[in-house]
Prior knowledge:
By secondary structure, this protein is mainly α. It contains 20 helices and two strands.
Amino acid sequence: MTPGILTALFVVPLAGAALVAALDARAERTVRAAGLVTTLLVFALAAAAWLRFAPGVAGLQFEERRMWVPAIGIGYHLGLDGLSVSLVVLTAFLFPLALWVAADQVRDRGKAFVATALLLEAGLLGTFMAQDLVLFYVFWEAMLIPMYFLIALWGGAARVRAAIKFFLFTMAGSVLMLLAIVAVYLQGARVLGAPTFDLPALLSRPLGLGGAEPVLFGAFAVAFAIKMPVWPLHTWLPDAYAEAPPVVTVLLAAVMAKAGAYGLLRFCLPLFPEASRAFGPLLSVLAVIGILYGGAIAWTQRDMRRLLAYGSMSHMGFILLGIFALNAPAVQGSLIQMVNHGVSTGALFLLAGFLFERTGRSRTDAYGGVAAAAPALAAAALIIVVSSLALPGTNGFIGEFLILLGTFQVRPAAAAFATLGVVIAAAYLLAFVGRVFHGPLRDDLRQLPDLRPREYAALVPLILAIFWMGLYPQPFLSRSEATVTAILTRMAAVPDSRPARPLVHVRARPAPAQGLAQVPPRGRTREGRR
């Protein structure tokens, strides 16, 4: 096998991290330039793959495959399809912006920060490309360690506690998933006649998991739900988002959370179709609770980053709702909403970082009238907020519309309650804008600087992406349509073994005895009248 573009996508950041580690820490500008050039090269590779990706093809493209540990069936298998190609581009798009902004926000141990961020990028990209269960697990765990250090070493006052909590939650889910991977592997070996961890091979025939399928589905789903996070497995979220450096929170909320949603689509739906149908109503309920609970808690928050953290959780609830509607509009809506959420939420956390870097204040009531001192910053905030509110013409609209449209077809009550989340989002986001940017200008904020050239360079690409996806989402939808259709078709081909329940209970009448005339239900016979 000749290494191709997918291998380069995660090897380049690994090589960049090694290069940065070899540089002199005192040459800070050189270190940051090396990190930025590395991420820009990765973005160029990802953009090339996205542009060359053939819409309408359900299978894997750019495949790279080779046996890694033949004795037990572990393979090096990478590929892109409609589920992953746009998430790879999103990851590669956000990392250079984050490193560009980090020059202003992270000045301590810059060399270690850049190297750790590049290791995180390699882990994330590998997660979205891996087609072997063990290889996926390796990349999944490889994300955890760099993020732990990014929070623990460069976070706020309670950073160590937040990092440990994040690590323990994620590791607990990962252990469950590892046990489920082993169980799927053993059953696959019995059914296929050869041991393999290759996902396409495991999907080539029904595995016949029987009563174990709900348990295995639950093990995978818990690991992915923690990473999203899904209520009630979200309790690590406010601490991690609030204590991480703002630029790290961008990566945590905008990219890493998508790995959980991606895992549900990649593994839970195709591997466990019956369990996905059976648990769909429950997960839809949890999604609605997350939408409403996250929005309500965000509305009560005065800490800017906690407000955005709970708001992010609320928006991720829409993605979960769309996935388990199990129809094409909703699932496609969830996929494009992952990209939309990454862009809009990443931009919101960047804005929060700009404000915090200028003032050191995280409470929204410590601001007021900022629009008078920094009109460009206020204008950018308004554009990003309306995109998070799914205003038509912005990126958030098409994703939420498709999710609600698809959910209304199967669970109208869940869709109706989820729609209330849009109203709640308007309440907390517009309150955030009002408290920070409007009202009388505080005397201690009169000299607040407006957007700097470096900050313009980070926000302009995000705002352009907001309007591009809002006005012309077809390139993203066309790339996911065939893969989504194939997954749903495969699920429909697996019969539901659960006994059907009648919609209306009808009491059966006893059949008439053989040889006797049936008595008319109304009236009386002539003999009876006699």
